[in-house]
Fold this protein.
Amino acid sequence: MFIRQLKLKNFRNYDYQEIDFNKNINIIYGNNAQGKTNIIEAIFLCAYGKSFRVKKDSDLIKFDKDKAKIDLIYERVDREGKIEAEIDGKKSFSSNGIKLNRISDVVGKINVVIFTPDDINIVKEGPKERRRFIDMMISSLKPNYLHLLSSYNQALEQRNNYLRQIKQENKDTSMLDIWDDQLSKYSSEIYRYRKLYIEKISEKLNSFYEMITNNKEEKVKIKYISTGKDKQTYSDNLAKTRDIDIKRGFTSTGIHRDDFILYINDRPAQVYGSQGQKRTLLLALKLCELSIVKEDINESPILLLDDFMSELDETRRNNFLENIKECQIIITCTDKIKLDADYSEYYVEKGVCRKL
């Protein structure tokens, strides 16, 4: 799978830009705030239906313009395709000229794995970042998963609203049974997906970490933490915490509080890992994602590296690239980098991307 061409019109700081990509490695460099990450963002938007940087769609439109447009032409093993995105107060997408009505219809048309500097928060920060990582990976492979998450979150919001009404207006507590049943059902299905894919990561994580570091002494592992293992267990947990939830005005148990813990030599990496260890563990985690996506779709996904390679020393950089030879790679960086591979170079300045 690879992106053949990307067209941007009034997107971020681009007036109009066409970029023809190499099917292997593409290095996009230039000073900060010139538009490099905007290219990565446009590709990500076509893959996931949303930005990884902002929540307001209006932020994606060039200043003083009313509408932005992205055209992305791609090739897969068995077909070619085109994704079109328009942003004019809200987003709309089409695939090969056919309008897509839901975000879940966009996800999975192309499969991308992204590295950004903020991804280190998957290892360093709280459960929200780690849930986002696993949910994005599964959603790109299993369209039904995104629907399950949406249904769960909608039921959760409704239950939380009613909890506040019980506290403030003395509403009937038995009505909570309706949402408890819905949450229990969705929770058990989401749990099965997460458990399956975290097990897949677990099978690969240590070998990738060892490969990047050339270090056989450090052992890494991943452990899934959840309270939603099956419908009955979650239903029982909701019943146990009902009084507490009413007092607090929100649902205190469920898969919306899931986490996975990463360990180095049986010690939580979040607490005890050095910066270098955390960065290497993130690389290993992303290599797991690449490998799992490839196995699921029977072709290599597209790898987006936004200002990430510059943080790696030469050994880790080459060890990393050694394992992703079959992927199309799109790299952004502030300075030229030399790789032991064939690649195309592009220079970005003031919203203009020029192939060298």
Q: What stands out?
A: The first helix runs from residue 36 to 48.
